[in-house]
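Pasting as-is:
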Amino acid sequence: MIIIGIAGGTGSGKTTVVRKIIESLPKGEVSVLPQDSYYKDSSHIPPEERQKINFDEPAAFEWELLIKHLEELKAGKSIEVPTYSYLTCTRQQETVPMQPRDVVIVEGILVFSDKRLRDMMDIKVFVDADADDRLIRVINRDCIERGRTPELVVERYERVLKPMHNKYIEPAKKYADLILPQGGNNTVAIRLLKEYIEGRINSHK
């Protein structure tokens, strides 16, 4: 099994990079473990207080469960991935079954923040994007998918996303083996990554 870590700021294009990697490899060869699924449950916090939660710092995630699940996949076991609702900021009862595959992609803003997780990765990729481009994507996504107003998104960006990006996400770039400027539009870097993955898979067969 090859474990690939894909990190980068909110709205940097990580999801596009992951999709293009999956599309470039044989069907059924890749499993994606999203870090977002491992946000701590906030159902014990009053709904009006949940909007104040900082989702962009390492303390927001249940690292132990994420690492345990990755270890189980590596050992050839299936797992039940949690689901998380951004609308209610709570973990849902439903889980998503995941089988071990030749390639497992661990994707999220802070996947390089825990050394135990980093040490399990065969290659670490940081998706880089201009701050203005990231903000535009965040506004589009949060207004459409998460029911927020543009004013709320911009306020949250200034209050939380920008300072947390500078404090936690940008410094983690130093751990990357490969930095992808322009995210999913960087076809050369994605092709090189695909070739690397194929080479590793073939060497394991």
